[in-house]
Amino acid sequence: MFEVLLLAVALSMDAFAVSIGLGAKRQRSPLSLALMAGIYFGLFQALMPLIGYLGGKGVLGWIEAFAPWVAFLLLALIGGKMIYESFAEGVEEDIAHITHRVMLMLAIATSIDAMAAGFALTLLDVGPIIACLIIGVTTYLFSMLGVYIGAKSGTWLESKAELFGGVVLILIGLNMLVN
Fold it and tell me: How many CB atoms lie within 10 A of CB 88?
């Protein structure tokens, strides 16, 4: 269960970082934007790992002997991408207005990585529905918190959140190789 919580926190860091950037724009009231970000990001972060899990279950029989290596590789790639992105400018800079369509696109973009990470759920000793609910609720809470942090203090924490999430994903992948 501890690995699922770590995975949930690490996967939510992309949405957290974007939420900080959205909150810093101050285009809406923090409460309405926090609810919007929490719902969109939380829902997609819960659904995408489930899709990845179901896909992983389908191919697990073929690659069972290599499954820890595949999980490590996927988590290392996702973590590396998050670390790389932590040094780049956020996409929120280009957004003129925060609409439902924009939030949908951001939710999809921040949760694609979670689909690949969903494969790792096939190797954990937790039911996929429970794991995805934990990931979704964690992302919901971090997204809401991110909007408030961004509204109060700007974007100084944005890149640090992505860096932290990337490092944690790589460490989870390494742990899967060792265990």
Answer: 9
